[in-house]
Specification:
Strands 4-5-6-7-8-9-10-11 form an 8-stranded parallel beta barrel, surrounded by 5 helices. Helix 14 packs across helix 16 (348-369). With 392 residues, the protein is an alpha/beta fold. It has 16 helices and 12 strands. The radius of gyration is 20 Å and the shape is globular. The structure holds flavin mononucleotide. Flavin mononucleotide (FMN) is lined by residues 66-67, 80, 120-123, 150, 152, 182, 210, 230, 256, 278, 280-281, 283, 314-317, 335-338, 341. Flavin mononucleotide binds at residues 66-67, 80, 120-123, 150, 152, 182, 210, 230, 256, 278, 280-281, 283, 314-317, 335-338, 341.
Length: 392
């Protein structure tokens, strides 16, 4: 019996190997005309996974690897990508969906944006383009989506905030584009106070406090190329410290990297306005769950959390349908990391193309799912009984 099961498992594994990007013919169509070191025409990029392919062609091995790598055996990295297809959609038909695009705009912590997704905070934008994060600021402004800037950006903090587009305000009388600022904090209270003052003065609208990186990520692929984590020390972060931090700023502090329902509950009890579900793109601790699995755990055990605070989530989101599955559980906005990092090889136009493609996919996928209004999507649109990936 044991032999039979093992045999079955290995056959299934052999039959369905992991593919970084599912084969949709990009190599056949663009491979011969895109030598290493060059980019294909931007208009030939038809979906988010294409930008991984393009960046792999264009960037040198270590730059591409810094963006692409995951922790250890990269099981979480792969699971983030694969988990979405384990849950089947439940499309409804004969529904009037013609106004679906009107329901894409949303608010994120009170700021108005054109879509329920954002550019997740990622370090070292300069590995793909000399203008680095400035392309994210500009692309986000032109697309009216949210950009969360990383503390470990290639461009300086001042340059990033100076690049904001005036008149692209999402809120009230403020005339500046609304950005959120990601931080890695330590128990050095004075340093944190100074950092918060700088962030407030610059006009950021929220502080995204990464909590999933208590230690260096165990990154084998990156180590091979000598491109380790930007944040490599042990860091002390506790809810006691969080309370000290909240006294230093009027901005909301959002914990990024919540991975269990227990921590989601604790965050709510400690008064946060939003939580951000993430396993850091599978880059920190291998075999941590994808944010879809965490959202499902919260939905099953403490669904009220989706009403009490705004919930953001990221990891492996590459298609409109991925976004829909997270929104169906009550997630308010979805982060996209690597596709935007890769798209920056094309500069600001690449960043804008990722945004446009994802907006379009969200709308057409919602329509085909029979969702008339994105704000009304609910868990009934997905069969939450997982299909076993290895035997499907
Ligand atoms: C190249 C790269 C750099 C990153 N840098 C940071 C960072 O500085 N701070 C942070 O909180 N998360 C960082 N992340 C994690 C992202 O914010 C996000 O959680 C992750 O990329 C989402 O997964 P995805 O890339 O599959 O979309 C980084 C991710 C990548 C790919």
């Amino acid at each position: 019996m044991r032999f039979t099961l093992l045999g079955l498992a290995s056959t299934a594994l052999a039959a369905r190997p992991f593919m970084n990007e599912p084969d949709t013919g990009i190599d056949d169509i663009l491979g011969a005309t895109t030598p290493n070191g060059s980019l294909p025409p931007l208009e030939k990029m038809v979906g988010l996974p294409d930008f991984d392919w393009a960046a792999r062609k264009k960037l040198n091995g270590s730059a591409y690897t810094y963006y692409r790598n995951g922790a250890a055996g990269e099981w979480s990295y792969r699971n983030n990508l694969e988990v979405f297809q384990r849950f089947r959609l439940r499309p409804r038909v004969m529904v009037d969906i013609v106004n679906i695009e009107d329901s894409l705009p949303t608010t994120i912590l009170g700021q108005k944006y054109s879509a329920p997704f954002f550019i997740a905070p990622c370090a070292r934008g300069g590995l793909a383009h000399p203008d680095a994060e400035l392309n994210f600021v500009k692309g986000a402004a032109e697309e009216n989506i949210l950009y969360m800037a990383s503390l470990f950006s290639s461009k300086s903090f001042d340059d990033i905030y100076a690049a904001r587009v005036p008149g692209n305000s999402s809120s009230g009388n403020d005339t500046q584009q609304a950005l959120f600022q990601q931080v890695y904090l330590t128990d050095d209270i004075n340093e944190t106070r100074e950092l918060f003052q700088k962030i407030e003065k610059a006009g950021a609208k929220a502080i995204i406090m990464t909590v999933d990186s208590a230690a260096d990520g165990n990154r084998h692929r990156a180590a091979r190329y000598g491109v380790g984590s930007a944040d490599s020390s042990y860091s002390l972060l506790t809810w006691d410290l969080y309370h000290q931090f909240t006294k230093m700023t009027s901005l909301p502090i959002v914990p990024k990297g919540i991975q269990t329902v227990e921590d989601a509950r604790l965050a709510v009890q400690n008064g946060v306005k939003a939580i951000y579900l993430s396993n850091h793109g599978g880059r920190q601790l291998d075999t941590t769950p994808s944010s879809l699995e965490v959202a499902l755990e919260i939905y099953e055990e403490a669904p009220e959390i989706f009403q009490q605070v705004e919930v953001f989530a990221d990891g492996g989101v590459r298609y409109g349908a991925d976004v829909l599955k997270l929104l169906a559980l009550g997630v308010k906005a979805v982060g996209v990391g690597r596709p935007f990092m890769y798209s920056n090889a094309f500069g600001v136009e690449g960043v804008k193309r990722v945004s446009k493609l994802l907006k379009h996919e969200i709308a057409i996928d919602a329509a085909n799912l029979g969702v008339a209004d994105l704000k009304k999507i609910g868990p009934e649109y997905v069969n939450w009984k997982s299909v076993n990936a290895w035997f499907s």
